[in-house]
Write a structure and sequence with these properties.
Layout (H helix, E strand, L loop, with lengths): L2 H17 L3 E8 L4 E9 L7 H17 L6 E7 L10 H6 L4 E10 L2 E11 L3 E6 L4 E6 L3 E6 L4
Parallel strand pairs: 2-3
Antiparallel strand pairs: 1-2, 4-5, 4-8, 5-6, 6-7
Length: 155
């Protein structure tokens, strides 16, 4: 599959998402040559993505897929949300999810650890401050050491 086709999907998905007050989070195209899964993950800037939002996005993009030349025999279109344990991808997300519980996996050790789970207290271009519930301590995590981060379910 060509990058050109993927770029077309991204462009159209961003256009439709914007028209619906949503954001494109991610696109994955998987599966064998003849039958692909086109997974489009959408997000809402201020609230959780509902099933209705996914359905509306799907209804908007399906006619477009039917009107273009697709480089494989058939496909399944899957539209979803990032989920409650969504990936956090940078400063924008760290600020957006301030006060939410998150898990950070680091590429370097801080206090002899590479995993921190706590509430995001603050974030700037250089660091994220995480308040760990168990130790009741704040930790400064340099942004350039974050290998992976995601929201956790806060019970």
């Amino acid at each position: 599959m060509s990058e050109d086709f993927r770029d077309k999907i991204i462009k159209k998905s961003e256009e439709i998402a914007k028209s619906l007050g949503l954001e494109l989070f991610e696109i994955n195209i998987t599966g064998p040559k003849r039958k692909k899964n086109i997974e489009i993950t959408i997000d809402h800037p201020k609230e959780s993505v509902s099933i209705e939002m996914c359905e509306k996005f799907s209804r908007e993009i399906e006619p477009w897929f039917d009107s273009i030349d697709i480089p494989f025999k058939s496909y399944n279109l899957i539209v979803s949300s990032p989920g409650i344990d969504r990936a956090l991808r940078g400063l924008k997300d760290y600020k957006r999810f301030k006060n939410r519980l998150a898990k950070f996996i680091l590429s370097e050790r801080i206090e002899n650890r590479t995993v921190f789970i706590g509430h995001i207290k603050d974030a700037d271009e250089e660091r994220v401050i995480v308040h760990e519930r168990d130790s009741k301590k704040d930790f400064e995590i340099p942004i350039n050491t974050i290998k992976k981060a995601n929201l956790e379910i806060d019970l």
